[in-house]
Amino acid sequence: MIEKLMLALAAEMTPPPAYGTVHIIMIVVGLSLTISLAFLCRHFDERKNKILLLTFAGVLIASEVFKQLFLFYVIEDHSICWGELPFQMCSMPMYLCPVAVLCKSPRLRKAAYGFMMCFNLLGGFAGVFEPSGVLLRQVPLTVHAVAWHYGLVFLGFYILFSRRAGSTLQEYFDVVKLFLLLAFVAFVINTLVGITVDEVANMFFVGPNEAPIIVFDTIAKKYGWVASTVIYLPVTSLAAGLIFWLGRLYAGGKKAKLPR
Question: Domain spans of the chain?
Answer without folding.
Answer: 18-250
